[in-house]
């Protein structure tokens, strides 16, 4: 067993202390319950920085490379204090205790799964799969065990909402894996706190999910995520971002919503690869051989993700018709597809003109457009509008609104590219603002023409 596996196992053992928190809620005094919940983690943190010396076996077991410089187990202390912070939220505030347990073990055991996977095959994708798989299983087990323990001390319901448990465990595993892929792996405290707050939000939404939909969503998104990585249309962080967004879209939105999103991911990725060598020669090709990173995927999809979550929160938490958020979602995806098609296909043609002055510019100039690119963008928006019409109960006018959103997004992207890109915002910021403009257009037009 390698040192990294032993260290991961030791941190997993510390994470297992989370199962004591449900029992602590059985104390009648809130103060005693709080002390009992956070004391194990605070004690571990204190031992790491004050008692455990650098010459002991325990130090070598828990030490990360940076800990040797000062002779203190700062990594262990940070991990434990992050868990203590979440435990405090669980006991004193409304973070569900079983969800707290699930979050801690997702991160702790997911790390162990990643290290074990590395011993089988030294491959980044395999290691990440190990993190997600083991973290997911641990998250399910932690939530179930936390519910049972809390019920045994008379502080919670004995029934386990298994579809919700599966949804939260999968979301937590995906988010944690994504954050670890874009941060340093030793930033587990930040990962744990972020996942905890996000799953708290999802729990409060009280989404109507079924176990069947969650399982199907897992199977579909993991398969498509692997294909995107294998075909080099996305980097590992980009693939994880797409998987997470697709999973949430299926579970919270539905398969019709997902059909639009996956069409953008698939066709957008393929359009980037189209005549890639020629784009390289023209200086307009995407970096990393066209493999989209997490920033690019998020910039094009974050507005759509907010629309999905908002739809799940309405009308129970937001007094708005969910259909309004559907048009915002479809409009944002149409804009992302339109912008991608217009730039990837339009950039292959000569004589682009700056959208603000119509003067000829060099290919690849921000804000430069060609009629071929505009036509390709219109086709992209039409694809999303057509998918929406086939999968959702919307009128011809509704499809036209989505088409309009795509064209608005493409225009806004070009206008921002010609005016503020590079000096005020970057390319990813422009993409996000364009999808936001399209989403607002969809919502505004739907309200104006009375489609709700």
From TrEMBL:
Q: Which residues form the signal peptide?
A: none
Q: How does it sit in the membrane?
A: Multi-pass membrane protein
Q: Which UniProt keywords apply?
A: Membrane, Transmembrane, Transmembrane helix
Q: Which residues cross the membrane?
A: 33-52, 73-91, 97-113, 125-144, 164-183, 190-205, 211-231, 243-267, 297-313, 325-349, 369-390, 397-420, 432-451
Q: Where in the cell is it found?
A: Membrane
Q: What InterPro entries does the database record attribute to this sequence?
A: DUF92_TMEM19
Q: Does the keyword Membrane apply?
A: yes
Its GO CC terms are:
membrane
Q: What is its main location?
A: membrane
- Organism's domain of life? Archaea
- Tell me which PANTHER family the record gives: TRANSMEMBRANE PROTEIN 19 (PTHR13353)
Similarity-based family: Belongs to the TMEM19 family.
Q: What is this protein called?
A: Integral membrane protein
């Amino acid at each position: 067993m390698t040192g990294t596996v032993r260290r991961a196992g030791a941190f997993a053992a510390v994470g297992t202390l989370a199962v004591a928190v449900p029992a602590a809620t059985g104390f009648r005094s809130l103060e005693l319950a709080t002390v009992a919940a956070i004391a194990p983690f605070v004690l571990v943190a204190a031992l790491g920085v004050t008692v455990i010396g650098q010459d002991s076996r325990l130090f070598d077991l828990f030490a990360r490379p940076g800990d040797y410089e000062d002779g203190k187990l700062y990594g262990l202390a940070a991990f434990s204090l992050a868990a203590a912070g979440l435990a405090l939220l669980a006991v004193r505030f409304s973070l569900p205790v079983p969800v707290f347990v699930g979050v801690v073990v997702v991160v702790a055991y997911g790390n162990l799964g990643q290290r074990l996977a590395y011993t089988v095959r030294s491959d980044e994708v395999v290691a990440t799969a190990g993190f997600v798989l083991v973290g997911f299983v641990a998250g399910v087990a932690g939530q179930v065990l936390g519910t049972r323990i809390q019920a045994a001390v008379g502080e919670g319901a004995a029934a386990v909402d298994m579809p919700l448990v599966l949804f939260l465990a999968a979301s937590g595993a995906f988010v944690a894996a994504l954050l670890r892929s874009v941060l340093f792996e030793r930033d587990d405290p930040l990962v744990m706190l972020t996942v905890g707050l996000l799953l708290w939000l999802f729990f409060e939404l009280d989404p109507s999910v079924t176990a069947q939909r969650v399982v199907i969503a897992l199977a579909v998104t993991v398969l498509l995520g692997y294909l995107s990585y294998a075909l080099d249309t996305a980097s590992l962080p980009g693939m994880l971002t797409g998987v997470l967004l697709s999973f949430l879209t299926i579970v919270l939105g539905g398969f019709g919503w997902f059909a639009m999103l996956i069409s953008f991911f698939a066709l957008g990725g393929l359009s980037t690869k189209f005549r890639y060598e020629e784009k390289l020669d023209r200086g307009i090709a995407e970096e990393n051989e066209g493999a989209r990173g997490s920033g690019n995927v998020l910039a094009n999809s974050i507005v759509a993700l907010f629309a999905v979550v908002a739809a799940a929160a309405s009308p129970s938490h937001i007094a708005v018709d969910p259909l309004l958020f559907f048009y915002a979602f479809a409009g944002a995806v149409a804009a992302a597809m339109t912008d991608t098609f217009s730039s990837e296909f339009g950039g292959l043609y000569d004589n682009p003109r700056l959208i603000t002055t119509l003067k000829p510019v060099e290919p690849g100039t921000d804000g430069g457009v060609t009629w071929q690119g505009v036509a390709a963008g219109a086709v992209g928006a039409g694809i999303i509008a057509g998918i929406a019409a086939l999968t959702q109960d919307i009128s011809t006018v509704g499809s036209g609104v989505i088409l309009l959103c795509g064209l608005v997004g493409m225009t806004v992207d070009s206008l921002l590219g010609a005016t503020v890109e590079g000096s005020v915002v970057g390319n990813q910021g422009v993409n996000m603002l364009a999808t936001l403009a399209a989403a607002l257009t969809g919502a505004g037009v739907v309200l104006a023409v009375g489609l709700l």
